[in-house]
Amino acid sequence: MADDTIPLVELRHATKTYGRIAALEDFSLAIESGRPAITAIVGESGSGKTTLARMLLGLVAPTSGQVLYQGRDLHALSGTERRAFRRDIQAIFQDPYGVYNPFYRVDHVLTTPVARFRLASTRAEARNLIEDALRAVGLRPEEILGRYPHQLSGGQRQRVMVARALLLRPHLIVADEPVSMVDASLRATILGSLRQLNQERGISIIYITHDLATAYQVADNIIVLYRASVAEAGDVELVVRAPKHPYTQLLITSVPQVSPERMWLDEQRGGQRAETAHNGCKFAARCPVAMPVCQQSVPPLFRIDSRRVVACHHYAAPGDVQPEAMASVFAGE
Amino acid sequence: MSASILRVERLRVSYDHPLGSVRAVDDVSFSLRPHERFGLAGESGSGKSTMALAILRLIRPPGRIDGGEVWLEDQKLSSLSDDAMRALRLAGIALVPQGSMNALNPVLRIRAQIADALGDHGMSLTQRDLTARVHDLLGQVGLPPAVAEMYPHELSGGMKQRACIAIAICLRPKVIIADEPTSALDVVVQRQVMVTLARVQQALGAAVVLVGHDMGLMAQFVDRLGVMYAGRLVEIAPIGEIITSPRHPYTQMLIATLPSLERKGMMQGIPGLAPLLRDLPPGCAFHPRCPKAAEICRAERPVLRNLGDQQVACHFA
Question: Which residues of B touch A191 (CB under 8 A)?
Answer without folding.
Answer: 267
